[in-house]
Amino acid sequence: MMDGSIEIETLTLEREGTRIFDGLSLRIGERRVGVVGRNGSGKSTLLRAVAGLIAPQAGRLRVAGVDVARDRAGALSAVGILFQNPDHQIIFPTVIEELAFGLEQQGHPRGVARERARAMLARFGHADWEERLCHTLSQGQRQLVCLMAVLAMEPRWILFDEPFNSLDIPAALRIEARIAALAQNVMLITHDPARVAGYDRVIWIEAGRVAADGPPDAVLPAYVAAMQAAAQDEPC
């Protein structure tokens, strides 16, 4: 197995009685991987499965050798996920509590977790956020809190589910620059092909299956053409 890779073997996954994936297999080891597809194609479900938040009915899914659905402690060091809406992720009132929580789940004593959380805040130039109430921050700032909380746990992979939605242009550019600077491997879902045009690999998911998989300059033109054709076929 490729060191640090995501290994998906004959994955079968159902949600609320609907089969999303039926025998999906992928091996993903590139540093920057984009995932595109229309709404309801299974993109977000795939990300949640890779993060270990959804257990498959059959097949195997490992990240950096960790069975993320069964080994939750190991999953925290293998993969982190940032949801589209940071309010669906933040669970504590203050920034320091939010950053320290995952570290405590990894087994760090509370004092150590808080010190590492403070170091992360200082790294991003926001030491003054320690006692800030999360709900008083802007959406872009709350997304940064979520990113810092994930980075503090030092996972091998970081997954992003439409991180640019609802952000103004400056905030979106800041998030894009932070993603580009990450040392971790990245998998990013987006509706905007331009966001992943410079990535190492793009996977196009259509109705729970891989419609195309390869370099962006091969996958993205086919994806855009298919979406344009679908738009023309639908009544206004």
Automatic annotation (TrEMBL):
Family named by the database record: Belongs to the ABC transporter superfamily.
ABC transporter domain mapped to chain residues: 6-232
One MF term in the entry's GO annotations: ATPase-coupled transmembrane transporter activity
Name of the protein this chain belongs to: ABC transporter ATP-binding protein
Any Gene Ontology CC annotation: ATP-binding cassette (ABC) transporter complex
InterPro entries: AAA+_ATPase, ABC_transporter-like_ATP-bd, ABC_transpr_CbiO/EcfA_su, ECF_ABC_transporter_ATP-bd, P-loop_NTPase
CDD domains linked to this entry: ABC_cobalt_CbiO_domain1 (cd03225)
Biological source species: Paenirhodobacter ferrireducens
Keywords assigned by UniProt, alphabetized: ATP-binding, Nucleotide-binding, Transport
A Pfam family it matches: ABC_tran
